[in-house]
Design a protein that fits this description.
By secondary structure, the chain is of the alpha+beta class. It has a single domain, classed as outer membrane lipoprotein receptor (LolB), chain A (Clam). It is built from 6 helices and 11 strands. An 11-stranded antiparallel beta sheet has the order 6-5-4-3-2-1-11-10-9-8-7, with helices on both faces. The chain is globular. The N terminus is likely disordered. InterPro entries: LolA/LolB/LppX, OM_lipoprot_carrier_LolA-like. It holds the Pfam family LolA_3. Keywords: Signal.
């Protein structure tokens, strides 16, 4: 899979998918879809309500635990960090362990920063990855079910207070990398599981989620670096 279709998905969820990309989960796969799956009207209606609820949070801050399993790994790889999602600005994705890393996925470009908040590098121009992040972030935050349904078969169960959504690629290019994406949550996303065509599974658990805390000065400065 080339640069044009690396992953993207709802504000802080799409940061999770970007993290999977950084781990190499989406390179060089050639899976084919025998027949494109479809979504029912009921599933789409529930997802639309869920997206409307999740998208109401202009700023989301959370801690995350990422667990990656693979046939090539003897034991799961655990990564911990924090994220900040701002619906009009992008995502700050900060890994604290096992090795510190910091990225800002903004509306126009991506920037890398150090533990003190100093910007280390920026994209010279908006990349295909940045474009895809913005496209899917917009779909989630503005409740654009039709945009997602054109690329995924969607199965949604539960209620808006406790829901699960399973996204299965219906486009061959996306299916080259992703086998299935499963989300659970309530008024925010609580867990995400990405299954790849390589047999890897990457799970994100989001804890200490805050939806009423405004951006601080450091966070605003980092977002400006990715404008």
């Amino acid at each position: 899979m080339g640069q044009r279709l690396r992953s993207r998905i709802h504000g802080w969820l799409l940061s999770a998918v970007v993290a999977a990309v950084a781990l190499g989960a989406t390179h060089g796969l050639h899976a084919q879809i025998a027949s494109a799956p479809t979504s029912s009207a009921a599933d789409l209606a529930l997802l639309e309500r869920v997206l409307s609820q999740v998208g109401a949070n202009a700023v989301v801050k959370a801690e995350f635990i990422q667990t990656r399993t693979s046939p090539l790994l003897a034991t799961p790889v655990i990564t911990r960090g924090t994220l900040v999602f701002a619906s009009e600005l992008g995502v700050i994705w900060q890994v604290s362990a096992p090795q510190w890393q910091g990225y800002v996925y903004g509306r126009q470009r991506t920037a890398r920063f150090d533990a003190d908040g100093n910007v280390l590098s920026r994209e010279a121009q908006p990349s295909a990855l940045t474009h895809q992040i913005n496209e899917w972030a917009s779909a989630f935050t503005h409740g654009d079910v039709s945009g997602l349904a054109s690329q995924f078969a969607i199965s949604a169960t539960g209620t808006t207070s406790r829901w699960q959504a399973v996204l299965t690629p219906s486009q061959p290019q996306i299916a080259q990398a992703m086998r299935r994406l499963t989300l659970t949550g309530d008024n925010v996303v609580r867990t995400v599981v990405l299954e790849t065509q390589r047999g890897e599974s990457i799970r994100w658990q989001f804890d200490k989620v805050k939806t009423s805390e405004p951006l601080n000065a450091r966070e605003r400065r980092l977002f400006r670096a990715a404008e």
